[in-house]
Amino acid sequence: MTALEIHGLSKTYGNGKIALQDVSLSVAKGSFYALLGPNGAGKSTLINILADTVRSGGGSVRLFGHDLFTDRSWCKRRMGVVPQEIAFDPFFTPREVLHFTSGLFGKKADDAWIDELFDRLELSQHTSKNTRQLSGGMRRRLLVAQALVHRPELVILDEPTAGVDVELRRRLWSFMRELNAKGTTILLTTHYLDEAEELCDQVAIINHGKLLTAQPMADLMRQVASSCLWLRYQQTIELSPADHEILAQYAPRTDAQGLYLQLGLQDDGQSTFHQAYQAAVDRFGPPLDAGVRKEDLEDVFLRLTARQVGEAK
Amino acid sequence: MKTSNLLGAQTLFKREVRRFLKVNMQTIVTPALTAILYLLVFRYALGDRQVPGIGIDYFTFLVPGLAMMAMLQNAFANTSSSMIMGKVMGMQIYLLMAPLSAMEVVAAFLLAAVVRAVVVAVVFLLVLVPFVDLTIIHPWLIILYGVCGSLIMGGLGLLAGMWAKDFDNIAMVTNFIILPLTFLSGVFYSVSQLPELWQRVNYANPFFYLIDGFRYGFLGVGDTDPFASVGIVLLTVALVFASCWYLWRIGWRMKD
Ligand SMILES: Nc1ncnc2c1ncn2[C@@H]1O[C@H](COP(=O)(O)OP(=O)(O)O)[C@@H](O)[C@H]1O
Ligand SMILES: [Mg+2]
Fold first, then answer.
1. Quick check: is A304 in a domain?
2. Which terminus of chain A, N or C, has less C-beta within 10 A?
3. Which domain holds residue A274?
4. A307 DSSP 8-state letter
5. Whose CA is nearest to atom 1 of ligand 1?
6. Does A44 contact ligand 1 (Cβ within 6 A)?
7. pLDDT in tens, chain A (313 residues)
């Protein structure tokens, strides 16, 4: 069964901004799913429509087989959402907040589970402080606890690691992995592509409100060239359709200023360093400087979102 | 299939009550004290004078009106401040994400507003018990008008909180609409004392009926016939509740 089945989801905000256009994707039960896309791609809009904090502008969503829009209450009880924006209730302590959140979701507060959440999210020292006294990172972890307190079957995290330091990020992910191993479906957005690559088995990429691709992470990673040749030029380079066609096997792209050209090198004996270099020189002349580096998910991501890469790393 | 969420509504109600209890200096003591100060000022300014046309001394006349005014203002403050705080702090979304129906949310907010109003009024009246010879002629009128008035004002506070984008918006509504309407509603005078024009203005002020009806319950006299106004008061409660319910349901000014 699918945990989440989104079909033709669209959204235009009141100011005319089109945030989602006909997005369809399917999250299998038990998967660890990454929703990636540059800033403003529409990730939070999608999540907020699921969470019922933004109105849908068309399309259908099924959650564990139930229609989200007609069966809201059923669906909400099975979903836990960590919003992107930090929110906190200045009147209460973290423990009170979790008690209230349990109650709002129709569940008696389970103190054993609440203590475990505090423990796993490194909040045990702060359970009876006023939330006002918590740091930004602590508040974000409290949001994670709030999303988990009613033991949802689908957990949705919208950039939960923004502003959280490396060590805590690692612990948060190991906790999520554990929940996932016990059967919880997890959907996350993150800016750290290495996190997504390491954690997620499925990935969808959206840009400008449109779905670019949705596939198993392993398949996407196969599109990662083993390495990448970069060439720096004095004059700006604009890739014409003809350039794209001729250099197609190298999936060429330029950086924002058009001073760097990047060519992917596959490990298949077809596109060697020498050939790629020669092809570039044939089209654009000799570069000022050139080098080779490893490709990663970010390169694929940038290629797919047609965003241009900054300085070669 | 289970769709109602009684525990959720109870939790929200408890949260709203605990919220004002936590800052009781601000939400209970100060309003009660303010009302007592008004009372003292007018007591000494006017001496033992009687209220014309009613034949009751001014002090006794003021007490129920001030109690009701405090109830109305505090019911409004409870919902409006909670809503705007939720919006500004971003906590609002937890009410939208929770499996709560609009009916459950509105009921929880309004009941908490009634509790706040009643607590303030009771504290005020208890402090005054030794000093005033207060009669209770129609207890049911007192309860009916007290609860209905608080529901109406709690509902209006909820609507104002939904509408407002920041604390300034709420301060504006409170200072320019709620305070004048509650002050100029016959708390400090009987309308029969007023010139013709101002009498008419008073009769057009909905709070006037609420305060007069509530006071009638204590004194057995007033400017209006509170039994005749019961229907319109109940209708107003229903109307305010329905507006809150509908606007919450569509996520008015909360969901983009
Ligand atoms: N409440 C809103 N009103 C108008 N436009 C919005 C609103 N929220 C987001 N947007 C716009 O919609 C687009 C998608 O935003 P968002 O979903 O937050 O993207 P992401 O989470 O992928 O960064 C952006 O262009 C953003 O400016
Ligand atoms: Mg976002």
1. no
2. N
3. 226-294
4. P
5. B256
6. yes
7. 899 999 999 999 999 999 999 999 999 999 999 999 988 999 999 999 999 999 999 999 999 999 999 999 999 999 999 999 999 898 899 999 999 999 999 999 999 999 999 999 999 999 999 998 998 889 999 999 999 999 999 999 999 987 778 888 888 999 999 999 999 999 999 878 888 989 999 999 999 999 999 999 988 888 777 788 999 999 998 888 888 888 888 888 888 788 999 888 877 666 688 889 999 999 999 999 999 888 777 777 777 775 433 333 3
CA A42–ligand 1 middle distance (angstroms): 6
Domain that includes residue B200, residue range: 22-250
**Residue B2 contacts A where some CB pair is shorter than 8 Å:** yes
**Alpha carbons B147 and B121: distance in angstroms, whole number:** 11
In whole angstroms, give the CA distance from residue A208 to residue A305.
Answer: 9
A17 Cα nearest atom in ligand 1: 5
If asked whether residues A149 and A238 sit together in one domain, one would say no
Which residues from A are below 8 Å from B22, CB to CB?
91
Q: Using CA atoms, how far apart are residues B62 and B182, in angstroms rounded to an integer?
A: 14
Q: Could you tell me if the CB of A37 is within 6 A of ligand 1?
A: yes
- Taking the centre of ligand 2 as the mean of its atom positions, its distance from the CA of residue B247, in whole angstroms, is 27
What is the Cα Rg of chain B in Å? 19
CATH of the domain at A235: 3.30.70
Q: Are A176 and A186 in contact (CB under 8 A)?
A: yes
Nearest chain A residue (CA) to B101: A73
Is the residue at B240 inside a domain? yes
Q: How far is residue A63's CA from residue A71's CA, in Å, rounded to a whole number?
A: 9
Report how far residue B63's alpha carbon sits from residue B188's, in angstroms, rounded to the nearest whole number: 10
Question: In terms of domains, do A96 and A39 share one?
Answer: yes
B95: contact with A, CB 8 A cutoff: yes
Q: Which of A55, A85, A88 lies closest to B251 in CB terms?
A: A55
- CB contact under 8 Å between A91 and B22, yes or no, is yes
**Distance, CA of B109 to CA of B167 (rounded, Å):** 19
Q: What phi and psi, each to the nearest 5 degrees, are found at residue A18?
A: -85, 110
In angstroms, what separates the C-alpha of A3 from chain B's closest C-alpha?
Answer: 18
Residue contact A106–B85, C-beta within 8 A: no
Q: Fill in the amino acid letter for A147.
A: A
B40 in a domain, yes or no?
A: yes
Angstrom distance (rounded) from CA B208 to CA B213: 8
Among A54, A92, A107, the residue with its CB nearest the CB of B256 is: A54
Interface predicted TM-score (ipTM) of this complex, two decimals: 0.91
